[in-house]
């Protein structure tokens, strides 16, 4: 199987990848809606899309002419982002150019090592692999295991990492300095300034999801600010 051209990864350089995902049970939880969100993101200047679920991936791939990072969230265990080789192959076959999977040191549900999984994805589908990591050591190990991109996606979301206020720019910088593969900044990027800071820290590209594509959370931010202002005025 021929591997996807490195030009696809180069097209992401210094750019914004928009994560188009909605949680189960939400009003926007449908492949058609997420495809429309992805089309809007493309029109706004996104250089890539990140999407979850086989139906969403297939729909977005058919409609949006941008590099597509796909994943499949499944299971209740710690490792739930594309947790097995079977999940990864299905994501690639649904149309993802790049398969995002858990790149942490935690045990994978199917018992395969990260290196075995990445090699099989490369050999079976030709797709690239983005390893979602949470620490510096995991990022180094993921690159050594063959990951084509390393993301800081899970920093602050594992039991052994601390959630920073905003993206973990220190981790981004450390990995970018050390690795030869592209580092993708992801996680808690809530403002344009934070996105720019991630690129400045050395990220090849930056993923923004909630702050662009999750109206429920964005509305909550504004509602909380307005409520707090009302409380402040009542006390003054």
UniProtKB/TrEMBL annotation:
Gene3D superfamilies: Aldolase class I
Enzyme class, first EC level, given as a word: isomerase
A Pfam family this chain is assigned to: NanE
Gene Ontology molecular function terms on file: N-acylglucosamine-6-phosphate 2-epimerase activity
Catalytic activity: an N-acyl-D-glucosamine 6-phosphate = an N-acyl-D-mannosamine 6-phosphate
Superkingdom classification of source: Bacteria
S-adenosyl-L-methionine recorded as keyword: no
Any Gene Ontology biological process: carbohydrate metabolic process
Keyword RNA-binding: no
Pathway assigned to this chain's UniProt record: Amino-sugar metabolism; N-acetylneuraminate degradation; D-fructose 6-phosphate from N-acetylneuraminate: step 3/5
A GO-annotated cellular component: cytosol
Keywords, ordered alphabetically: Carbohydrate metabolism, Isomerase
Similarity comment text for this entry: Belongs to the NanE family.
Record function comment: Converts N-acetylmannosamine-6-phosphate (ManNAc-6-P) to N-acetylglucosamine-6-phosphate (GlcNAc-6-P).
PANTHER family assigned to the protein according to its UniProt record, in alphabetical order: N-ACETYLMANNOSAMINE-6-PHOSPHATE 2-EPIMERASE-RELATED (PTHR36204)
The protein's name in its UniProt record: Putative N-acetylmannosamine-6-phosphate 2-epimerase
Organism in which the protein naturally occurs: Knoellia sinensis KCTC 19936
């Amino acid at each position: 199987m021929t591997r996807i051209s490195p030009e696809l990864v180069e097209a992401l350089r210094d750019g914004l990848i928009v994560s188009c995902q909605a949680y189960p049970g939400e009003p926007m939880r449908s492949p058609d809606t997420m495809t429309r969100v992805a089309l809007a993101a493309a029109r706004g200047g996104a250089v890539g899309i990140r999407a979850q679920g086989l139906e969403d991936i297939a729909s977005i791939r058919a409609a949006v002419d941008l590099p597509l990072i796909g994943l499949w969230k499944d299971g209740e265990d710690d490792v739930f982002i594309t947790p097995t080789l079977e999940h990864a192959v299905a994501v690639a076959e649904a149309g993802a150019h790049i398969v995002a999977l858990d790149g942490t040191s935690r045990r994978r549900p199917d018992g395969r090592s990260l290196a075995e999984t990445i090699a099989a994805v490369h050999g079976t589908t030709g797709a690239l692999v983005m390893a979602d990591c949470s620490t510096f050591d995991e990022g180094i190990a993921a690159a050594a295991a063959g990951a084509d991109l390393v993301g800081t996606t899970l920093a602050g979301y594992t039991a052994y990492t601390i959630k920073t206020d905003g993206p973990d720019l220190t981790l981004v910088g450390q990995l970018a300095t050390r690795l030869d593969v592209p580092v993708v900044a992801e996680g808690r990027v809530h403002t344009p300034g934070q996105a720019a800071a991630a690129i400045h820290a050395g990220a090849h590209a930056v993923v923004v999801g909630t702050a662009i594509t999750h109206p429920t959370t964005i509305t909550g931010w504004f509602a909380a600010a307005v409520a707090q202002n009302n409380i402040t005025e009542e006390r003054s």
